[in-house]
Amino acid sequence: MSALSLFVLVFGLATIAWIAARFRAARAVPLGEARAHSLPSYHGWYVALWLAIPALLFLSVWSVVSPGLVEQSVLSSSAAEALPASQIEREAILGEARALADGSLSAAFNEEARGLVPAYQQASGYYGMIGIVATLLLAFAGGAFAFLRIRPDFRARNRVERVVMWVLLIASLIAILTTVGIVASLLFETIRFFERVSVVEFIFGTQWSPQVADASGDEGSFGAIPLFWGTVLIGAIIAMIVAIPLGLMSAIYLTQYAAPRVRSVMKPVLEILAGVPTVVYGYFAALTVAPAVRDFAVTVLGISSASSESAIAAGVVMGVMIIPFVSSMADDSIAAVPGAMRDGSLAMGATNSETIKRVLVPAALPGIVGGVLLAVSRAIGETMIVVMAAGLAANLTVNPFESVTTVTVQIVQLLTGDQEFNSSKTLAAFALGLVLFIITLLLNIVALGVVKRFREAYE
Amino acid sequence: MMAGAAIPARQPTDWHSDAMQSRIRARYRAEKRFRAYGLFAVLLSAGFLVFLLVTMVANGARGFTQTEISVPVNFAASDLFLQPGDVEGDGTEAALASADIEGIVNAAAIEAYGEDGAELISNGAWIRVRDAIATNPDMLLGQERFWLQASTELDFGSRGDMGDARSARPERQAMVARWDGLDEAGQVRRAFSWTFLTSSDSSDPTLVGIWGALKGSLLTMIVTLILAFPIGVLAAVYLEEYAPQNRWTDMIEVSINNLAAVPSIIFGLLGLAIFINMFGLPRSAALVGGLTLALMTMPVIVIAGRNAIKSVPPSIRDAALGIGASKVQVLAHHVLPLSLPGILTGTIIGMSRALGETAPLLLIGMRAFVATPPGDFTDPATALPVQIFLWSDELDPGFVEKTSAAIIVLLLFLLAMNGVAIWLRNKYEQRW
């Protein structure tokens, strides 16, 4: 019996227990006597939880532990003595024997594997039986214990609600667990990376060529400055040159000038820009924008070195993606400026545009800056547009028509090959990930702080 | 607004002087200019969107169709040693596999269209003939006319001279002429491509389909929804209704807000390090993809859920508590049902973001070439956005229209999901 069917069985038992306990609780209080403390359904839940939780906890622990136990008993059997001493070969044969035993493989590649099959079947049958018996015993014991406690004055509700409260708490702790998981996995691999490559070289080196790292040793090929520069050039400079003016002016027009009907149509239209998947933008940038930019650079500007994977194509498309982000942050900030300031300016005879430029925007500036910082953090973490439209060459150049590469592109590049998990390349991807995580985190904290202080100033 | 009349015509300002009038005119011009800039910005942004969509639709519309060429196959006269009786019952697969159907079809094409006939049909076109034989074995006794997928080269011929460098090549020119001849004879046509909707990845653009990727996406989304929705809603309930004001609660809130802003690729690194290397789950599987995306989607659901729960007025809680309901009863009978539309809207928006996500899936290996649709959660799978990425890397120009067509499918799914979210919000949103 597989773990899944056992799980379903326990679930079914719990349902039966719920019905039975509910029925018994309802019968336990004769009509006209003192009222029971808890509703019958609470008694039902109480019994069902006692039945299911210990059994399922045991089942999940057992399904993790038992494969190891099975393997151990196979190795100690007489058939395993002939196995080769090398760890890798042994694992391969064992894996094959396991597949043969559970029927997912029909023919063996290694002769030795066939000899192990009976031992495997016997051991897994033995431990599987232990698992089933123990799970069912626990389920019945828990259920019986709870069932016997059903009495009119038993406070089942309080106990069930305490369990609910714990479930809620555990669910919200998963957020912390995820954060810890991210930090730990990045940090752990990064430390291993820095055992091979010095921190100083990684952060200040200007030579990025992980392709040759395996051949010539790790030193001198993991300098990440060109990646940082490429990320800044595309995400923080070119994308923002596009997104800030367009986003800010769109927000100003839609909040200050546009008729309500125009606003109600155009605002969702702009928000669609944020909902388009980034892989679509990336394809659009690579297919349409990049060739146009290259042709423009070669024919009009006469830059013969212009690349078809230019920084500017990726940056412009990323800027378009960021427009709704900047626009909605600017929208919120301008709306938060007290109406009295605007009215005062208009009453003094300023035109609308003068009021906006001299009063509203300066007053809303902290909020707008916060929004821009959030947009930057989003742009530098963006992956697909740059993977598809920016290049792989780690150039340190200010010419936006040349190809540059970014942190995210290199993470994808380093991790999508077929290399060992422990190679320096793989570890370098985690180091880059850690840098990206820290920078986006800092940008977010600063931005949210700025926005919060700005809000408080006007409240 | 600048009403000169509001200010009495006093010295020293003479509003009617030429200098003053020209200044006012300049200010009004600046006003108009500024307004025009704003309108320009809005129109430019919307223009980008329209341009993007038009490009995709223009490129992709062809991807849903395919060029077909008519090939008469004379089974009776061919050296195919198959009788109708062979392809019935259990032996069908083996009989079809041993017969050289591909050779027969190629020979038929050469017979019908001359020397280069075999190059006019797609490499996989014979599969259609095989399937036809399996459904109707009697055709083996006579002659049958098939509409088969045309090769990429002929397909390009059907587009005529596109005026770019590629169509200037002599072999392309010859193919255009060839197409025109065939077209006049009624031996070619463009038909809706069921292949595109029902088959999986392939190295031949005339045979690719999105079903495999779509199913991979579906399986991934199921895992994501099963995990992210309950955890997200429970966490939102805890934070809004139970959490005491202490350091732990602050830590939970800070982590959730930060997780919502962490770049998606970081979740890919997490999935790779934890789920694949630590727990040893299979690479490229929908299960791992779903787990990774669930961690990414959960904060979105928590934030939307908290806002929805917060908007339920306290008077409803107080009323229920006042007539003796317990805290869980207040939640289950009143707060959650009332905030459900808001929670669902947030969930759908989070799910639509997860559906379009590519980068984390690349890192956990869902970029493998998967030619059969995944059967369950642990089979190697790919997802629709990843499929788009993979096709966009293909050198064969026949993939351009297929990529765009896949993008159209993806956008339609997202549109439908967001449409449902907006409909839910409008229908059930309550103003208290």
β-strand amount of chain B? 5-15%
SS class of chain B? mainly alpha
CATH level-two architecture of the largest domain in chain A: Orthogonal Bundle
CATH top level label of the largest domain in chain B: Mainly Alpha
What is the rounded distance between the termini of chain A?
64 Å
Largest interface: A-B, 89 and 84 residues
What order do the helices and strands of chain A follow?
Answer: HHHHHHHHHHHHHHHH
Count helical runs of chain A: 16
Biggest sheet overview of chain B: 3 strands, antiparallel
Largest sheet of chain A: none
- At the fold tier of CATH, the topology name of the largest domain in chain A is MetI-like fold
Structural category of chain A: mainly alpha
SS field, number of helical segments of chain B: 17
Uncertain spans of chain B, ≥5 residues at pLDDT below 50? none
Mean pLDDT across the residues of chain A is: 84
Straight-line distance between termini of chain B: 39 Å
How many beta strands in the DSSP annotation of chain B? Answer: 3
* Whole-angstrom Rg of chain A: 32 Å
Overview in brief:
Chain A has 459 residues and is mostly helical. Chain A is built from 16 helices and no strands.
How would you explain this protein's 3D organization?
The complex is a heterodimer of chains A (459) and B (432). Chain A is mainly α. Chain A has 2 domains: 3-154, no CATH class; 210-458, Orthogonal Bundle (MetI-like fold). Chain A has 16 helices and no strands. In chain A, α2 (40-75) runs parallel beside α5, α12 packs antiparallel against α13 (352-381) and α13 packs antiparallel against α16 (424-458). Chain A starts with a helix and ends with a helix. Chain B is mainly alpha-helical. Chain B has 2 domains: 66-192, no CATH class; 211-428, MetI-like (MetI-like fold, Orthogonal Bundle), CATH 1.10.3720. Helix content of chain B is 63%, strand content 5%. Chain B has 17 helices and 3 strands. In chain B, strands 2-1-3 form a 3-stranded antiparallel beta sheet. The longest helix of chain B is centred in the N-terminal third of the chain and has 43 residues, at 18-60.
